[in-house]
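Hi all, posting the design record for the shared folder.

TITLE: backbone redesign
STEP: 1 of 1
STRUCTURE INPUT:
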């Protein structure tokens, strides 16, 4: 009987922690729609329900998914020690995640795809640009989640660690975009961004796979380094170096896997010329699978 009572008490505590986390999460998820409309001066209800703008819906869906991914790294449950600490920690980390996701979207627009007027294109129902936009915020959220799990506590040094991890991820995402764009332009005589603006959905799907898998490789790098207040910068440098190494490994392994899985198929022609969405989705799945295997191997 005593064991049953203890079990019930434990379950009730877990239920309260769960309730606290879910309330904060739902508030912050709603904040995605609010901030999207506020920043872009757009009536989200009008775009989603009256104009039935699928591109805007995809973009917002990416933001909501990103927020959920990031928040999953902020949940500590009973480890928080009290309900108030869990609420404060969840809310603060969640708010930080929201800011970093929005900042990541800005960085991607200005430095990764500077030739695109992304907001105008999405409002004009450009599906390919909305897919890329959703993938970029999801990629940022994956790294934010990893940094939230990596750090311990809530103070100035943990904030610095999270911010630097975010910066590393943004540099990696911009770098992979430059490489992707260079390869595409070399083979097609037209820029990658111009093709996205023209509505090349298959290309956007392939690129989304590169973004998300790159973020996952950066996440895998965090498994090698223990968070240490005293040697914080050493840890950050190690994370950066391991991120580069794993990104190279990911590129090599993904290329090999795509060559074998899609044996006998000219992937460049299918995706870049014929706009074969099916092949592009397979490539995305392969990129995701290899990145997931790397994460599992490193953890």
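Okay, here is what came back for every position:
SEQUENCE:
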């Amino acid at each position: 009987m005593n064991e049953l009572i203890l079990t019930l008490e434990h379950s009730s505590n877990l239920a309260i922690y769960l309730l606290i986390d879910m309330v904060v999460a739902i508030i912050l998820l709603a904040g995605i729609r609010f901030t999207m409309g506020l920043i872009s001066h757009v009536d989200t209800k009008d775009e989603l329900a009256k104009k039935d703008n699928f591109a805007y819906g995809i973009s917002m869906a990416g933001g909501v998914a990103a927020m959920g991914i990031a928040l999953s790294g902020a949940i500590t449950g009973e480890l928080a020690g009290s309900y108030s600490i869990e609420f404060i920690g969840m809310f603060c980390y969640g708010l930080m995640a929201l800011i970093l996701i929005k900042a990541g979207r800005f960085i991607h627009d200005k430095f990764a795809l500077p030739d695109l007027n992304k907001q105008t294109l999405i409002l004009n129902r450009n599906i390919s640009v909305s897919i890329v936009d959703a993938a970029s915020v999801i990629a940022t959220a994956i790294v934010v989640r990893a940094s939230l799990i990596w750090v311990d506590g809530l103070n100035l040094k943990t904030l610095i660690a999270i911010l630097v991890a975010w910066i590393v991820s943004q540099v990696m995402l911009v770098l992979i975009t430059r490489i992707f764009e260079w390869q595409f332009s070399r083979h097609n005589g037209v820029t990658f961004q111009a093709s996205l603006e023209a509505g090349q959905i298959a290309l956007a799907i392939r690129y989304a796979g590169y973004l998300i898998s790159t973020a996952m490789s950066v996440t895998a790098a965090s498994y090698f380094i223990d968070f240490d207040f005293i040697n914080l910068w050493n840890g950050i440098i190690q994370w950066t170096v391991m991120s580069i190494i794993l990104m190279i490994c990911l590129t090599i392994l993904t290329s090999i896997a795509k060559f074998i899985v899609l044996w006998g198929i000219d992937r460049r022609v299918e995706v870049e010329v014929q706009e074969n969405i099916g092949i592009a989705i397979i490539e995305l799945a392969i990129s995701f699978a290899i990145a997931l295997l790397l994460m599992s191997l490193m953890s």
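COMMENT: The radius of gyration is 21 Å.
Let me know if anyone wants the other runs.
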